[in-house]
């Protein structure tokens, strides 16, 4: 049996490893000239670690250094809006890990034979019978997996009438700075903008910023330093330590819900199926879940029945998490001063169970 995977990011490579370990012939078509990612850290939450455990790779991330769960949210002046009980989260759900995205890609690439990887291959069309038309010719397979991201060529080809990704109104900057003393994984909310940081295993700090902005607008590092200059420590110092060439900026999109993730012998996974806002840190985690679930279902039940099972199990869960992710980040992007004042007064008074409702369904997944 052969599977062709369109897209060599985290979801696509995880699917490749999952199918390869089940004895399938695998081919990964990646438009970029190499298999890598730059510029950002990634929080691997307990559900994603369990997905990697299914491939025998989870302990390799754990050995690199475990991370703390998300500690909570502060105001721009440093006062807490809410705090999570990180010890309780670890006790209930297991481990977290933080990794550079490029290191996770490298881990997945090394788990595959070099012959299955085809960088520099631009996919033009995916047909329902498993034929993929690309810049180097065509390839026929028993199964095609579209793991080619938010602007998926696979989705456009097989779901031509589906609405495209929707810009949610804010853009995201990401960068990593040299070691700096910080306390855990924390996010700070302002008025239509926020700043988050979390420690990397080697002491460096992964930072991300989000702000309301017109689509495709671009803002430089000097402007960001000025914008966040009055925020609590260590935010100004982290921005001061950043270098222009390390900062990446991407607009934030959400994909409207698809009626199915399956078309003929083609399946979508990750952002191609359910692109979500980064507010819960679950985008890559859900792609990892998708990949191992798809390989298990198809290898166990056969292609047709396995695809039905994959869609039945993955679509409700991923679409629920997509909705909750959008809701979780919305208060950070409110701009009305009276509404912001109400937010800042109300959030510290809410019970911890209110915030856990967004988190628990994500963390409790098992294969």
From TrEMBL:
The keyword Iron does not apply. Pfam families: FAD_binding_3 (PF01494). It comes from the Bacteria. InterPro entries: FAD-bd, FAD-dep_Monooxygenase_BioMet, FAD/NAD-bd_sf. The keyword Cell membrane does not apply. Keywords: Monooxygenase, Oxidoreductase. Residues 2-325 form the FAD-binding domain. One of its GO terms (molecular function) is FAD binding. This is Monooxygenase.
């Amino acid at each position: 049996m052969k599977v062709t995977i369109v897209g060599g990011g985290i979801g696509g490579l995880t699917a490749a490893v999952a199918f390869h370990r089940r004895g399938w012939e695998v081919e990964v078509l990646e438009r970029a000239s190499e298999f890598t990612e730059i510029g950002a850290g990634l929080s691997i939450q307990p559900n994603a670690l369990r997905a990697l455990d299914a491939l025998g790779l989870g302990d390799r991330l754990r050995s690199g250094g475990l991370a703390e769960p998300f500690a909570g949210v502060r105001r721009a002046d440093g006062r807490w809006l809410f705090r999570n009980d990180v010890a309780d989260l670890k006790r209930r759900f297991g481990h977290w890990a933080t990794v550079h995205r490029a290191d996770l890609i490298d881990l997945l690439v090394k788990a595959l034979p070099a012959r299955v990887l085809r960088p520099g291959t631009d996919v033009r069309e995916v047909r329902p019978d498993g034929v993929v038309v690309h810049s180097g010719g065509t390839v026929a397979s028993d199964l095609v997996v579209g793991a080619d991201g938010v602007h998926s060529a696979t989705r456009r080809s097989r779901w031509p009438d589906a609405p495209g990704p929707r810009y949610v109104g804010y853009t995201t900057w990401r960068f990593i700075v040299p070691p700096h003393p910080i306390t855990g994984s924390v996010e700070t909310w302002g008025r239509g903008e926020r700043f988050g940081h979390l420690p990397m295993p080697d002491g460096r700090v992964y930072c991300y910023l989000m702000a309301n902005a017109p689509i495709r607008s671009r803002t430089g590092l000097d402007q960001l330093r000025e914008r966040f200059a009055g925020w609590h420590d260590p935010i100004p110092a982290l921005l001061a330590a950043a270098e222009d060439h390390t900062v990446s900026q991407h607009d934030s999109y959400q994909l409207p819900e698809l009626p199915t993730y399956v078309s003929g012998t083609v399946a979508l996974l990750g952002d191609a199926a359910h692109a979500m806002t980064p507010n819960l840190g679950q985008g890559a985690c859900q792609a990892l879940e998708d990949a191992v679930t798809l390989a298990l279902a198809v290898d166990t039940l056969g292609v047709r029945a396995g695809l039905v099972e994959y869609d039945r199990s993955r679509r409700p869960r991923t679409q629920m998490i997509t909705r909750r992710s959008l809701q979780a980040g919305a208060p950070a992007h409110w701009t009305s001063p009276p509404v912001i004042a109400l937010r800042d007064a109300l959030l510290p008074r809410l019970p911890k169970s209110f915030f856990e409702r967004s988190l628990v369904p994500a963390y409790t997944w098992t294969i």
